Amino acid sequence: MKIASVEGFPLRVGDQNQLLIKVKSTCGVVGWGESGLTSRELAVMGTLSDLGDFLEGRDPLRPAVVWEDLHLRPGFARDRVGMALISAVDIALHDLAGKALDVPVHRLLGGARRSRVPTFGCVRADDTETLIGFAQEAADVGWRCLRLGWRTDAPEIFDPQDAIVFAGEFLPAARRALGTQIMLGIDMHHRLSIGEAARFCARMPAGVLDFLEEPIRDESPSAYVALRRMTGIPLAIGEEFTSRWQFLPYVEQGLCDFARIDVCNVGGLTEAMRVAGWCSAHGIQVMPHNPLGPICTAASVHMAAAMPNHAFLECWETPHDDNAARQSSPVFRRALKLDGADYPVPDAPGLGVDIDETSLAKASGFEYFEMPHLRRSDGSFTNW
User: Fold this and answer.
1) Is 107-350 in CATH node 2.60.40.10?
2) Which residues form a coiled coil (predicted)?
C-alpha cells in the first residue's frame, strides 16, 4: 500500500472556514485530516500544492516516518503554515491506518486509558449576571470545568484595564455562585503585558481561579519566568506551538501547568503524543486546544483517550454557545457526539468520522476571513 494522492478541501461550516485534507492509498482506503491556522487555509493549500508529489508513493502505515520526511525536507518552512499541513496529513494517515487495520486510532497510539474524555465548556456573556446564569446552566448539565469570558459591543476594542476590572468582578461572583466543585478558568489570549497580568492575578482571591490561559505573549519564555514569580495561579500555555521545541522551555522550566496542545497545529498525532509524554514526565497535565471542526475534535478525543495526563478537552457546545454549528454539516455523515460533558471514546475504525464526498463536492461557501485586529482604546494594536 502506498499514498496515491493528497487533496485539500477548503469549505465553510457554520461561521467558520475549515480545511480538510484527504489522503488516498493505492488500495482505495482514504484518511481525513484537518488543518489548524484559522483564516490561513489558502496559505496551507499553497504549501500542499508544493508537497503533493513529494508525498505520493510513501507508506501510509508509517505516519511517524512520513512526518520526519516532511519535517526534515530541505527548504521546507517549518512555520505555522507548514506545520498546519503536516498536522493535517499526519491525522489523515492515522485515520487511514486505523481503517486499513480495522482499529480505532487510539489503538495506534497505545490504547485507550479511559472510556470517556471529559471536556471544559466555554461560556461567554456581556455582563456578570448573564454569564453566571449561563455558567450555572452548563454546570447543571454536567460540565465540571468552565472557561468564562466576555463578549463586547465593540469587538475590535480591547482595553486591558476594563478587562481586568470586569474579570475581577465576574470570576469571584461565579465562584460564589457555582461553589468549589467546578474548575474555573479564563483565557486572556496573549493580550496583557507582564505588569497587567500581575495586576489581574493580584485581584483574584485565593481559590477563585483554577487556570489562567495565555495571559501574555509566548515568544519570550523569560517573560513567563517573571510572571511565574508574581503569581501562583496555574498557567495554561501552548495552543499556537508547532513542535516539541516550542514547548521545550515551558516544560523544562516548569512554566506551564496545563499544556494546550493543538493537534492541528503542533504536528498532528505523532508530535502531540511526544509532547504529551514529555509533559507527563514533568507532572504537567494536557488541556487540548480544540477550536475547529469534527475531525479536529475526533483526533483530540483519540489523543486524550490514549495519554495518561489528560485533564479536559476544549468544547464549544455548551448551552447558549453560538459556535456549536462548526461541528454540524451534511459533509460530516458521522461525527463524535457529546454525552453530557464528555465524549465517549469511539471504537469505530480510524477516527470515527465519515465524510460524505457528494456533499463535500457541493459545499463551497469558503469565505475570505480575517481574525479581528484588536486595538486598545488609544488606537494601538494588541493581540486578538
Assistant:
1) no
2) none
CA-CA distance, 336 to 293, in Å (whole number)?
11
Q: Is the Cβ–Cβ distance between 244 and 271 less than 8 Å?
A: yes
Q: How many Å separate Cα 384 from the centre of its chain?
A: 16
Mapped onto helix, strand or coil, the DSSP state of residue 143 is coil
- Cβ within 8 Å of residue 250, ≥6 positions away: 218, 221, 224, 237, 238, 256, 259
Query: How is residue 157 annotated by DSSP?
Result: B
Which three cell numbers mark 80?
A: 505555522
Q: Which of 366, 384, 297 is nearest to 41 (CA)?
A: 366
DSSP 76-132: ---SHHHHHHHHHHHHHHHHHHHHHHTSBHHHHTT--S-SEEEEEEEEEESSHHHHH
> How far, in Å, CA of 58 to CA of 190, rounded?
39
CATH of 3-102, one of 3.40.1080.10, 3.40.50.1400, 3.40.190.10, 3.30.390.10: 3.30.390.10
Interatomic CA distance for residues 7 and 182, integer angstroms: 43
Q: CA–CA separation, 3 vs 36, rounded Å?
A: 22
Helices (H) and strands (E) in the chain, counts: 12, 14
| Stretch (H or E) spanning 310 | none
Region 193-201: mean pLDDT is: 97
- Structural domain boundaries of the chain? 3-102, 107-350
